[in-house]
Structure formats: structure tokens, C-alpha cells
Predict the structure of serine-type D-Ala-D-Ala carboxypeptidase.
Amino acid sequence: MTCAAQAQLFETRAKQAMLVDVGTGSILFSKQESEQIPPASLAKLMTMEVVFNALKTGRLTLTDEFYVSENAWRTGGAPSGTSTMFAELKSSIPLEDLIRGVIVQSANDGCIIIAEGMAGSEATFAGLMNDRARQIGLQDSIFYNSTGLPHPEQKVSIRDLVTLTLHLQREYPDYYKYYSETEFTWNKIRQRNRNPLIGMDIGADGLKTGYTEASGYAIVGSIKQDGRRLVVAMSGLESERERAEESRRMLQWGLRAFEPFTLFDKDEVVGQARLYGGAYLHVPLKTKDRVTILVPLTNRDKLKARITYEGPIASPVKEGQEIATLNVYIGDQLAQQAPLLTAASIAKGPIHRQALDAITELAIGWIKN
């Protein structure tokens, strides 16, 4: 999803930012989205993915209890001076309460308690985080702890945080609901959700804020309004106030400045791909699903599309094979990608055709759009 920011459409003070319409998959805005930054507490999104996956697969239950070690208490609890749920030393806490502490209160002690309970140590748990990160498609992120507390090699990208958020929403709807809780009380201490979007009456239901001296104030947020869901991620802001204002402003712009536009219907033939050694030189390509994109109200004329594929494509091919990608651009910004399938079955060609294609490949290579 690498693409450049469209400064003519929107300007933000954030150094890195990305806005996605979940329903269509349209990238409405992006700026330095693949640049690696310290995650701070946004690393807790990955911690929760590991937990939610264990719950979904039955390896854990919400009633399982986790022991509060001295390391968890001292490193992330009351003595640490960091975000904490004030877990009591040597007590045992049900997993559901730890989840709420981590999500609502950004509890570092809650993260370490979970990490030690699941993997024996936080370092081993970080290995689980990295394994899951690769499995769900995170490309620029590496984790060394469950909390996001400073580590020189711990990095994420805004693009990965959006990918992770979409995964959490899609795969764990029963657990994603915790991100919309406005407050949580543990050990008789009531704390409000640190996400400023939750209290803005704009349909926000998640997710997380973070801060480091190195990268400034950051946020990953999600809103659902009038049947549409938007996800925003941004970093490099100078204050809590600026973070709240910029994230709300970008989300509201995303709701108001775009309209849906159907490019192609399901199974519509949109182009062709060159075949190697086939009965025909090309195979037609069709859409897998209807391709609908959100386009700016004032920039529809800048809409264009391009087909890409890895060639040469060897014959035979069967109808319905996914062999290409439709890339849709608004100006120079990659706004959406959709898979393309073969629209026909093509058998191998005669021997002379295969030999001719081999000679052509050696002589000039393959040209792919």
C-alpha cells in the first residue's frame, strides 16, 4: 500500500499518517506510512492480537487467572511511574480484567503479567508477537516487549498499524468491543479511556494512543458513522491536544470529502495478461468482486487504473485463477488494490508456439503493464 501523500487534498501536522475506508478498502490519505517509528503504547495492539488469537483458538479463556510477579509489579506497576492498572503484588487476576486494564488504562503491568503468564517471560512473548506479526502481513514492525516501553530496536510503521487494526476488527469482533469502553476500575482506582476520540460523539470505538520523545504523540483510531467505518493512524504530533484535533479533523474530512464510485462490476472483464506457451497469446482478466472506490468530490477526473502481474504466465491456466492485481490511483496516490482472475481456461499451445514464446522471452523479455 505504499503511496505518497496528496497534499492538494488534505494537509496534516502529523509526520506519518494514513486514513482508510474499511468498507471499500480505499486509502483516502497516506504520508510516510512505511517509515519505521518507535511504537510506544501502540505496541499493545500487537500484544492484544496474541491474546485474542489464543482466546479464539481455545488456548485461553477469559476466566484464566494470571499471577502478578515482582517483575511485572516493579517494571509496569505502581513503582514504575508509567501507565498502570495498579495490580497488587503476588495477587492473581482474571484475563478479562487484564485485557480491560491494558486496553482502557494502557496498563504496562497488565501487559507484563499476560506475557509472563502466556510465555514464561516477556522476551519469549515478544517472539510470539513477531511470529503473529509476520503471519498477518506486517512488513515493517519488530517487537521486543509487550508494553511498548522504550527499546532501541523496537519499530512499527503506520501502514502496519492500520493492517493490524483491520485484522483485529475483522477476526476478533467479540473482543474488539473492549476498545470502546469509556472507563475501567481496578484495585478501587477508576481510570478513563486514554483515547480522546471515544468522548467526541463521532462514533469512535477504538483504539489506542502512544507517546515517545523520539516520535512524538501518536494515535490509532476507528469510527463508525452512517454505515461507514474509517481507520486513522498518525504519529509525530507535538501535543495531546494536537493529536486529538488532527485525528478528528482527518476522520471528519474522510467522511465528508468523498463519494462512492463503482469502477467495475463482479466478473467484469477489465484487461488481459500475456501467456507463455499457450493456445492463445493472452488470457482475459476479470474482477473477483465489484470494485467500488471512494473518490474525492473535486478530483474524480484524476482516477486511473493499472493492471500488474508477475510474468511470464505459464500455460495452461484455468478459469478463476488469481494471477493479477488491479491498482487504482487517484492522481499519483495508490488508493486501492483488487485481485484479478482469469476469465477463461487456456490450454497449452502446440510445440512450435511454445518454442517461439521461449525464443521471444530470451530475446526481449516480457513487458507487463
